[in-house]
Amino acid sequence: MEAVTAVQLTKTYGEVQAVRDLTLHVPQGGVFGLLGAQGAGKTTVIRMLCGLTKPTSGECSVLGCSPAKDPAAVHAVCGVMLASARPYAHMTGQQNLLFFAQAAGMAEKAAERRVSELMKDLELWEERERPVSEYSTGMLQKLSLARALVNYPSVLLLDEPTSGLDYESAHALHALVSQFAAREDTTVLLGTSMMHYAQSICTAYGILEGGELVASGDFQSLREAAGCRAHAEFRLSGGESLEGFRPDETLATGLLEHNGWWRAELRDEEEMPRLLRSIVEHGYDVLEARLVEPTLEDVYKRTLEQHPGKEGTADAHAG
Ligand SMILES: Nc1ncnc2c1ncn2[C@@H]1O[C@H](COP(=O)(O)OP(=O)(O)OP(=O)(O)O)[C@@H](O)[C@H]1O
């Protein structure tokens, strides 16, 4: 059974089509990145999956359970972390988690054990008796993740879990998500515009733009579909120029300079040694040479460029 399924899922708010005709199949296991810039429709998809918003048309399910028809069944198997969810500020972190664990139907002792375990793993243990109103943004995000994980969900839906966090904290939180997913055999659907973090933890992706799914698959298949090749980069001794150097057919594009590096797209990365040899044979002194593989952000941008009219909104973050 698939972890998440959507078939022709559509959500309209007045004139705005937040999600259009989305068909998505996420298998169990791994971390699926639902990528998109601001307003692409990620939150709306997640809200429909957890039953907070009803689709205008089409269907979706989580482990075969329909949030529209049987929200209780979805809540039993699914944990959700949404930016809009707020803990009770006057209660401590521990009290909040115990409250949500028991609201999810856990017995008192089991809830206590799970809350202690999560607070320790997420490094919130020292803060357990502080009221949540005193928590920092990072602590609140961890508490929110702990809440989503409290009843051992089989599927975890996360909407921009690191928004508002600095680089180190965001990196640490993504690493925790990845560890929990592997350790507890949880499938994660991560809605994000942070390509750098997504690339470090996701096993497959769906690219959402203007509410439509424009591509999906693992990194390699998205990269191939987008035609993203590796780049060769060279820095020459004494700041020498490679302008006009046209070796042979190894390059897909001309060499361009950026911050002292001469850069061009290779037709095939296996061409790198031949290109390097050719530059040296033409008498240039190569100080440094490197092969740069495309990142998820490169693939994402190229994918949007291939969908006319959509590239103007490709302002996702590198992380
Ligand atoms: N309750 C609502 N009423 C009206 N329009 C809405 C509502 N919720 C979302 N939208 C619109 O639907 C579109 C998709 O929004 P959504 O929040 O799903 O995008 P997102 O990819 O999650 O963006 P962000 O990263 O900014 O959260 C946007 O144009 C947004 O303005």
From TrEMBL:
Belongs to the ABC transporter superfamily. The keyword Manganese does not apply. It comes from the Bacteria. The keyword ATP-binding applies. This is ABC transporter ATP-binding protein. Keywords: ATP-binding, Nucleotide-binding, Transport. One of its GO terms (molecular function) is ATP binding. InterPro entries: AAA+_ATPase, ABC_transporter-like_ATP-bd, P-loop_NTPase. Residues 4-235 form the ABC transporter domain. Transmembrane segments: none annotated. It comes from Anaeromassilibacillus senegalensis.
